[in-house]
Records
---
Amino acid sequence: MGPHYLSRFFTPKTVAIVGASEREDSVGYRLLLNMQEAGFQGGLYPVNNKRDTLLGLKAYPDLTSVPEDLDLVVVATPAPSVPGIVRQCGEKGVTSIIIITAGFGELGDEGKRLQQEVLDIAHRYSIRIIGPNCLGVIRPNGHLNATFGDGVVKDGSLALLSQSGAVCTAILDWAKSQDIGFSTVVSMGGAADIDFGEVLDYLATDSKTTGILMYVEGIRDARRFLSGLKAAARLKPVILIKSGRHEAGCKAAMSHTGAMVGGDHVFDAAIARAGVVRAYSITELFSAARILANNYVVKDNRLAIITNAGGPGVMATDRAEDVGVKMAGLSEASITALNAVLPPHWSHANPVDILGDATSERYQQALDVCLADDNIDGILVILTPQAMTNPTQVAHSIIDGAKASKKPVLATWTGGARVQEGRNLFANSNVAHFSTPEVAVDAFSFLAHYMQNQILLKQIPMPGDDLATPDVAGARLIIERVLAEGRQVLTAQEAKAVLAAFHIKVTQTIKVSNAKDAMIAAETLGFPVVLKVNMAEFSHKSDIGGVRLNIGSVLDISRHFVEMETAIKQKHPEITEVCMTVEPMFKAVSGREIMIGVVRDPVFGPAISVGLGGTMVEILKDSAVALPPLNAYMVEQMLAKTKAAKYLRAFRQLPPADTQALVDVLLNVSTMVSELPEILELDINPLIVDENGAVAVDARIKAEVSHQLNRYAHMAIHPYPHELAQHHQLTNGTNITIRPIRPEDAVMEKDFVHRLSETSKHFRFRQALHELTPEMVVRFTQIDYDREMAFVAVTEDANMPNELGVGRYIKNPDGHSVEFALVVADDCHCLGIGTKLMNALMQTAKNKGITFFEAEVLAVNSGMLSLLKKLGFSVETVADTLDVVRVVKDLRV
């Protein structure tokens, strides 16, 4: 409705620097000097109680003596003084503070106490804080450099967010050598208040920013982090580096999955789901930024290489293999066309070696053929300086040829002075240039990963129409009964019962505690059978010889029981009773052993993995990881990343396995861990998959009591809330559905706004708007269902348009209130649609703990004001304007 609540950090008109100093070796001196050297054009006020002037500016003893209202205060004084300064800011009406000072949460209990005191004061006065222990903020276009870094930062279109001030300065220094500029630089520091998610939300709609680079060390609020990433990545490329690639975070002694899936695997899955690309070095970071900033689009990752030297082509091919880029196969038509324009001894394959005497014409002809080949998604052109080749002329030819195609064309001009002019030409073209062939291949791989992740970003899992409704209540009762008995690990019978409640086929299991019971169970099930140890003390049964297969008689099962019981008691004298299970021996001649697992990551919540199973699972280490909720597309993408994908196909004498059955199992597991926050870990190993289906032969579940109040609070990604759909009949008899909006509603939403009258558009957007821009369509239809919600009223009545109205809200920074918007089609007024949309929005917000619903409404919008008054909203005037009123409703009443 108005400027973003973080805008004062980036576009302030008045700035005070508390702790400004004349000592050249001090942070306060550098802060003040950087502001002056950046050419800050607003009011700049040094605060130092020992100086009257600093660097030619009048200094003030404290904030209260500064004569102007302040948009931003930068604090660089010792940590014990900061609470008092924050209180002064509150009393002066300052709402934005950057705390440069260290000595807070990173310095033990006293630092944490001091930090909490600062946050308590800030909360009392509605103050937002960047930091503490940060480098600061830079906005080159606004002549703002509120950091103590060294040197001027060039204006550009990339934003940089970094948790580490040192890494931030290193990246800025590297970028300066590469002549790369920035729209915004934010050093997050301790992120005690404002974190990545909120800054990303600001940058998503910032017109100065076309791409975002991030350095991440740790995440405090996973859902807000991913929400901000998604909001930004829907509109512009986001590339990040993450340090601390640990595994300890989600390891657990109990499960195979916990031993294999570390925190870094889960982080990769999370950012892929958010549409983000990950880099592993500063060089890769800028390589990815350079190619993504050109807005290239690829269907796949098939790369062709054109080179005038064999060695660089081979090096590039090797790198392609390393990073998973496919070397494109040239079509027969392309080979014929290349034969017509290239010397007889060209390579006749990809890489396309056009030989050392290649002219600019030969380069352009080869490029034209490759651009026309549907088997090729991108082209890397390599030039090494040869006596017969003019690097500058070739650069002109490549740039001209690339203009005629949407396919990405990358270039590597290797060498020194002879190729420099060509490199300069590429710098001002749509052909991205890279220093070496390997770096260029890396950049193309980032582009392919980005496009793949953008598809994942748009996936909104819906309830499977072909999947039976699970017995969630029954499964929860089983788990609650286990927890009430003081146990966390479910028995095999209990675990399989939970799986069965979610329609995952399992083998029958009978629990036994003596040889007689084992014999009875075996006769009941029918031979052959399997005897397994079933005790929480032994996570991996095969490690202690706790599995006996293919037992064919009563006599044999009695003997095996006694042998296993005796061996366990000898090794563990403290055990008085050995529990086992008897199961039918599952026969599947063509069965493949698959493992499906779940771990609870401490940051991102449940993560699902799939890969080759069996007793050698830790050695094979075949797994792909994804965050729930999942849909069929995401499951298929998971499977494609595993070695198991090939194992499931037909080979030798084995028929292809029923992959759809495996997909269904994974979808049911996704539903299970979404609906049951009690589940901490799950292993299905093995899941036997053959041509007839999938059966869970063994399973273990570890659980804990859940204390969460909000459904899905344990998940980093909020599932599509299909349960919120409502069905109504309007006063004219039309049947409508009010449901949460989906990405596939984009065309419908754009058409709806296009059909609105100019008056309705003005009431809704408060600006002249003919139709939604592509960016607005994305923003309106791809939401996260947690911090924002949008309901559409739709009908299948052929006599009415498909979309009749839309209402939405988004959480305010306080987390307790939301700002809403509502619009109904002009030809659908007075049918009760607005009331039904508002009631759906308010009930949803209330269920999420929101206490206040509010919005700004044009005073002349009498129809909207009349509706809101009937719904119990109060109307308040807005300071300094008669055109707008504010409407507020307390949802607690």
---
Amino acid sequence: MEENEDLNDALNQDHDSSQETLTKVTGMYKDWFLDYASYVILERAVPAIEDGFKPVQRRIMHALKELDDGRYNKVANVVGHTMQYHPHGDASIADAMVQIGQKDLLIDTQGNWGNILTGDRAAASRYIEARLSKFALEVTFSPKITEWQQSYDGRKKEPVNLPVKFPLLLAQGAEGIAVGLSTKILPHNFNELIDASIKHLRGQRFKIYPDFPTSGIIDVSNYNDGLRGGKIRVRARISQLDKNTLVINEIPYGTNTSSLIDSILKANDKGKIKIKKIEDNTAAEVEILVHLPSGLSPDKTIDALYAFTACESSISPLGCIIEDNKPLFIGVTEMLSRSADLTVQLLKAELEILLQELEEQWHFASLERIFIENRIYRDIEEEETWEGVINAIDKGLKPYTKHLRRAVTQEDITRLTEIRIKRISKFDLDKAQQHLDNLEEKIAEVKNNLEHLIDFAIDYFKELKKKYGKGRERKSEIRVFDDIEATKVVIRNTKLYVNREEGFVGTSLRRDEYVTDCSDIDDIIVFTKDAKMMVTKVDSKTFVGKNIIHVAVFKKKDKRTIYNMIYKDGKGGPSYIKRFNVTAITRDKPYDLANGKPLTDVFYFSANPNGEAEVITVNLRQVGSIKKLKWDLDFADVLIKGRASKGNLVTKYSVKRIELKEKGVSTLKPRKIWFDDVVRRLNVDGRGDLLGDFRGSDLLLVVTQKGVVKTVPPDLSSRFDEDMIVLEKWNPNKPLSAIYYDGEKDRYYIKRFLIENENKEELFISEHPKSFLELVSTDWRPVAEIEFVKPRGKDAKQNQIVDLEGFISIKGIKALGNQLTSEKVKNINALEPLPYEEPEMHQPEDIEVVDEENVTPEDRKEVSNGEDADQPTLF
């Protein structure tokens, strides 16, 4: 307590004094942080470019090599052995070893090593075992070309870097957080790395992209070569099992089934998505079943899973490595290039050592042959001293050593004296010569490899791929993702209410007028009687302006929703008519749709989701000598312009009321819609195959391989499954023709039918589990060829050509159809259809949309209606 009081007094004195005292950090404190930061960067978090290992990983591999005898070792034993080189605890070593083992490349594992799919941890290190894989033994170790250093306590020697002859860093990936920097190198495909290395050695360009052990779908459009600022998007593979069940078979990298399910449940709790229940059937393969409530769109739910759960995530790579004890930021292309060049240098060093060893073997084998064949060993019988023995052998060898490749040394002579008498007595001249010939062949081969080093390195990589590449094919599918707008796929989890008179909108106004279902991420567009407009975010209660005439959920960039309006321009002013859309705004900013005059009043307003133009009746008040008090106006005669346009003059007289006379049809041009098979989405940007021009009521025809047909609106957010075989604009008068196999009757049938129920999914083949769809056609007059199975010992039946239109008439969708044949069928092939001229259909005239914010005075010019100059006018 006394110390605290003294400290407080000191602080108060410093505060009261006018001069501040700065104490500089000196001595050990000055360098401690820098030393710590350097240690973490160089010795813990960031891998080396030479071998792709962090120090702890390198020491684990070295310990495994020292313990290697072909049998499994307890991981606890390996951890203890590694602690001779690693100055940290056993837990960090065991965790690092499990991470290496789970990558299934360098360590051959036995026991429960955890599961990267479910997130289950490995068993304790005393229960699991490990040994080096054959791949690791081949590419990771070469003691003769390894540089060694003292361990941390000086008792052992450990490698500075392991001589890895493979782009191991890119194959395994690496992630670490140091002080002031981090690294995140994503794993790549084994075989693709080898192919890229070969391309680099051949001087060709290459591209490599990540490949994840959890599979999934990836978008590498912004990968940026793995450099800072790049990003890849990863998605789970989600498919529709049936109309109420989705199945997740692959998960994004960085997640597991537990975290993925948790994210789905949280999104469900927040009301972003709606699910019934989740089943996790994951074992060796991922299988998560997502059961949906009846009546919910599976396509929309898939998009919602990507938008609001961990089924889609972004990964930002950061290529940071250690080179010459300094961090270096490089891309994966340069990493692979450096690895391939380093592999060439390591292979060269191994070949040079091998050549030196072979030449030494050849040299001594030649000396041995000379020594024994010429009986030089007899010259030492009379010698009494060691020097005399050496000199006698040296003298005896000289006449025969001219062909040797180097001079004879005293060490060579000493080795000759160590030859046993038994070896001399059993010396075989032919075998000795054969041994020398073999050595000369090997020497020539090594020299040839050194002269053609690049070709040798390419063959080395090819051999690696041949031996270890099987079963290491790409797991992650590369696709271009479409952007999902969250507002389009979110479940409407709340209700929107409005108090029109007081001017409030919100989700908490339960006693007021219900408007629509909405979500908490939606924007709301509001129009008021004084010709004002505002867009605001959904909230519990928001004031937007009194006398609200229209409120709805706002859709950004929506050019199809057209607003029709007639308003009085200020007190006693003329009335104007206008049509406009709202595509982009500033949230919470009030917009004036008229000229901003006081007492502006909206007489008529309608919102039309597909540009409909209605007919209205204008009624004027009886004032003065007005002859025409009532007439009709068609909004189709008014151009669609920007919301800031003034509009066209209706009348300068007082309007009594405006009545709706006739509902209108869409006046917008039909939209051209394409289908992009890469992302399996519709678009209006010209990507993929053109499906046609679509008006408001047009539908798409969808047929799947399961024999299901349905018609759906051409919604750009719709998703189409892989088993879809027909996607086209639906013509209600055009029949579908199908050939299918009925599993119950064991026969092929033909049927032709029309779709009578719009927006309904129907099965048009039998429900027997062995039934399947063989062929479906939307041609007017389709033709098929039937190939029959040839019976043994008999002549083959000729192929049969079938005109499907003549074979069967149009029947109901549930009809069985007519039997095609009783013979065994080999193949059924679609042929060119018979000619047919489709009758022309009358199309209404298209009204052009004018996207103008400002309108010229000529556009507002009054035009007489032919009655009287004082009568109402319309542009």
---
Amino acid sequence: MEDSMKARLTCLCRGLGKAYFGFAINSQVDISGISAEVRTDLGNQLPVGIYRLNSKDMLILAVPLLGSGGVHISIKLRLDSGMVKSLYSGKLNWIAIKWLSRYCYKFKRKLAFALRDIDQQVYSHQIHVKPELALESPAGDLIIKGVVCGPYSCRNSDIFLLDESGSRSDSGNLSVGRCNDVVTFSQRRSEISFTLRIPMDGNTYTLVADGNCSNEQPGFLCFDAASVQYYLSTLSPLFYKASSAGAYASSHSKRIDYLSMLDFSECKLISGPLFSIVVPLYKTPVSFLNDMVHSVINQAYSNWELILINSTPECVELAAALDKLTDKRIKVVTLESNKGISGNTNFGIAKAKGDYVVFFDHDDTLDPFALYRYAERIQDCPDTDALYCDEDFLNETGEYVAPHFKSDFNLDLLRVHNYITHLLCVRASFAKELMLRKEFDGAQDYDFLLRLVERTQNIYHVPEVLYHWRISDTSTAKSAGNKNYADDAGRRALQEHLDRCGLNGTAELTDSACFYHIAYALNEEPLVSIVIPNKDSVEVLRRCIDSIEEKTDYRNFEILVVENNSTEDATFEYYRTVSEQYENVRIATWDGPFNYSAINNYGVGLTSGKYLLFLNNDTEVIESGWLSSMLSFCQRDDVGAVGAKLLYPDDTVQHAGVMMICCRNEGEMGGPIHVFNNLDRDDPGYMRRAVISQDLSAVTAACMMTKRSVFEELNGFNEDFEVAFNDVDFCLRVRSLDKLVVFDADALLYHYESFSRGYETGEKKVRFMREQGKLRTAWAEYYVNGDPYHSPMSTR
């Protein structure tokens, strides 16, 4: 009888940073009387979950899988008499656990999988620590965002981090949101959002949520090396996942297979322009030359001429390869000596007889449909003056990698980076007028583009990967550092462009080669009226106003707080004291029901600033130059609205612009969504677009500036959008005036509202869906055609 009460270890397995121990026990043993204690070699107590398999004769312990040493396991049973009986006591080191797990997966596979993740199959009386987002910060930290969900009795759970010895660790940075009540299957539960940052230093960490309740199981999330890689691969919030090596290689391979099945003679005939493709050659490897030439000869569109300018006639093999070219559309121009990239290219431009000049590098290749797509666009829109397409990279092993899915024409993005690059096609009259300038060699194409956009902005983006940029030892595709002089040449070209355009700005180098920053100066210091709707939330509003008053270097502003149905006495007392404390703060009262658009429209009518800044009360200024930076963009005649970069209090991105979502069919739900949401504040994002200022379709009115003249021309916010999407609708109407909406990456604030988890339910959810429907009705073209500033590939 004594032995029948013992627990016997019969199976063990590992899974996602946890170890699951299976003990055979007598089926008559009441699990509610069982307690287990697991300690490390150092005596640190670990969290442990206790479960019973459905067969009733197996007890399972779930324990964090630490990095070294071993564990001491003790299982006891409290009898009805009050006596405590030992069922098991033993020690296992982590090496033994690893090999026993492998054994059980091989020879007790069914049982091992029954044990694994059993803690995720229990809901009542169980705390769950659920990861929802995982990413690596530029500093090398792992960022995990998730939620602790547990029984209502555990709403005050102790949440903490263990190191690999089982000791409480201060190596991580844990941010916890407010606790929300939820009801699932009629059970009242609590949810607490969290953000955890831990160093990716090779050590194992465990996040624990312990409700300190005898009848509730603790939850824990483990971060060993394998688990970290799994979370990063499955929970990454990064946009443009389609640009990852595996995803893109697969899609491009399918395209190659598809193209190989086509007979281009059956393509729809296009009576289009003559393209003059200009290629300067300089010590070009013969294999690269042949690949480049064949990619032109194999174009589905045939009305082209290929002008090859050979500036290295002493290269015998190259000269011999050129002599073998027999297609009459190919013209070889041999120079006596190298005139530099600009001089050599200009020879080709001068020789061009086509309607459009196409700039093509000597070691790159084209997709067979590159010229066909360009001809289609010109046929549909004869006023097109320039075109460019998406591109990828052709590496040394012949793989197509790292696609660049580009924005449609984006003036402010171009002013900090030549995102257009290839395949640039320009109306011949512009190409012959502008030519390339030798003094900007290395960035001659950037200088050319900046001068081009001063003459025309009929520049069209073909959103397909039609250009393959070869990665070679001397190519800028491999490293911009191979041509360091290009960085300063680009800065000089940008500065000249700003000067020619009468823009009071200074072009500056950055830590990233060929990415620039413009420090705009203010032409004047007009009054900026800051409008802040508010209902109660005294401490939230106090933090907001104090941060504006104490941290803002631009001083010509007024703050109007629009009181909206507050009920707390403390709120009205604060209104009295804050207007006394700051002479530029006023309080106005809105008497109607809550309508964000109407409240702001009302507030604007009580202000006098030339510029308006709409600001949520739950924001906090971080850096002093935020207001002057936003104003420096908004003062431009071509700009209608400017948005800031907003961070969660855990220093991840809450807002870096708003993107409309392309619906591939009528059944899909659309956005809009915040781009680069949840990235680390310093993470550059895809093509550095999370950290550079640029034009976008929309920004959030949680912090948005506009001109009063623009606001009045649009009759303010559309009051049909009572709560949601009023800012998106406003921005899209700004764009309908042919004015730009700019995301200012240098205007940095915290935005607290969305850090803690929240839900729209009942009538609020109905209203949200109704307003989204209004947005889809008003701006259907965005849902059909996609966002012009972000590729549809960004969310796939």
